[in-house]
Amino acid sequence: MDDFDPDHRKSNTPLSDARGKPGLPPGVKEIDYSFIDRACEAIGLHKVDKEPANTESVPDVDADPNVEGNQQALPSPKDGFLASCKKSEPWAPFDDVEKTKARMERYSSSDLLDSLSDFKDLIDSSSDAEAFTKTTRKSFIAANIVLNERVRAANDPAPAPAFRPQPKRNKAPKGHAADLSNIVRVIDMHFCWMIGHRPAGRHVVAIFGQCFDFDEAYRFVTARGRNEKKLGHLGLVDTLGAGYCRLGNASFKTEGDRSIWRYVIRKREQYRSDLINTQLKASVNREEWANLLASGYLLTRHDIAITGQKLMTIMHLLGQTNGDRPTRYMQKYGAACRALGISKPDHQSRSAAATG
User: Fold this and answer.
1) Which of 70 and 334 is assigned the larger pLDDT?
2) How far does the chain reach from its first CA to its final CA, in angstroms?
3) What is the spatial distance between Cα 327 and Cα 308, in angstroms, rounded to a whole number?
4) Among residues 318, 352, 350, 326, which one has the least CA distance to residue 59?
5) Nearest-5° angle of CA 307, CA 311, CA 317?
6) Domains in the chain, ordered, with CATH?
7) Are 313 and 244 in contact (CB under 8 A)?
8) 328 burial type by CB count under 10 A (0-12 exposed, 13-18 middle, 19+ buried)
9) Per-residue pLDDT, 160
10) What is the DSSP annotation of 239-283?
11) Are 347 and 305 contacting, i.e. CB atoms less than 8 angstroms apart?
12) Tens-digit pLDDT profile for residues 289-322
């Protein structure tokens, strides 16, 4: 297929009226956003009174040839999304979810993940993702953007997109299913930007600036081009990116990444079950230990030496930040391995890990 075309246009639908306000297609009424609050109350979401999580002071990943971009200051949720909503040109196709996002920020990460699970069930139960429209679409986007801003946060951290409930996606989607796939890719790019990834490719450098440009990101994902080439533009072919963001996003992965991701998800469930059935001290957090073991497994499958710093990086992708030093992550990992009788290698090849 053709490479990414900077001048490609996906839609000719007018996006603003004569007064400069966002336009709607003929016959479509303005959405009543108060429905979000009523819907959240109906499914049991609870508001939380707290300040937005501050991710400015999170520690960087240790120097590693597979990790890049860590020298740049990470964005704060306070300036991340709202500053990014500036339109770089009149053609601005990405959804305006600012109001919906403001409502979503009232809820805990756990509640937002529950809501994503509900959206997944709703979308998966519809033909060709027909349910991915109107309020569901806006709420799905807004919830994921809020969660992106909470990845690696000290308080109420959120997992990376790859470890959130995700609706099923087809390899050759059409209609609403294609819209869903493109939106997931934009969310993934925003996640990569939030944790410091700054690719220099000419097709994407403007997207990953001081502010994330959602409009240009949407333009990039809807343009023609193979996923492999877009991975190259994003600087995620020969590197895992800042904070191992290639492992944390849900769509921009190699085929090898997808296979390993499926193994890791199964392994984590196995570890969780084994730990539940193992007698341990009352102080042990079995969920944390299962995630540590899964983190170690993920690193070995990617042929990466296990260190406390790298375990901490993967734990952040899984949505856990407990304030421990890297050495403490390594100590807990070793204790979890001993509890289940698992060998704790300093390094392990992919072929050896595949049999473990």
Assistant:
1) 334
2) 39
3) 5
4) 326
5) 150
6) 34-61+68-248 (no CATH), 255-354 (1.10.472)
7) yes
8) middle
9) 97
10) ---GGGHHHH-SSS--HHHHHHHHHHHHHHHHHHHHHHTS---TT
11) yes
12) 999 999 999 999 999 999 999 999 999 999 988 7
**Cα pseudo-dihedral 277, 348, 318, 262, rounded to 10:** -80
What does the pLDDT look like over 233-260, one tens digit per residue? 999 988 899 999 999 999 998 888 989 9
Flag whether pLDDT at 28 surpasses 50: no
pLDDT reported for residue 1: 43
Q: Is the distance from CB of 139 to CB of 119 less than 8 angstroms? A: yes
CB 37 within 8 A of CB 99: no
**Residue 290: which residues within 8 A CB-CB, separation 6 or more?**
268, 271, 272, 275, 336
Instruction: Tell me the pLDDT tens digit for each residue of 161-170.
Output: 999 999 998 7
| CA triple 35-151-108, angle to 5 deg | 40
Nearest to residue 145, comparing CAs of 80, 206, 241?
A: 80
Cα dist from 127 to 132, 134, 182, whole Å: 10, 16, 18
Q: In sequence order, what are the beta bridge partners of 47?
A: 107
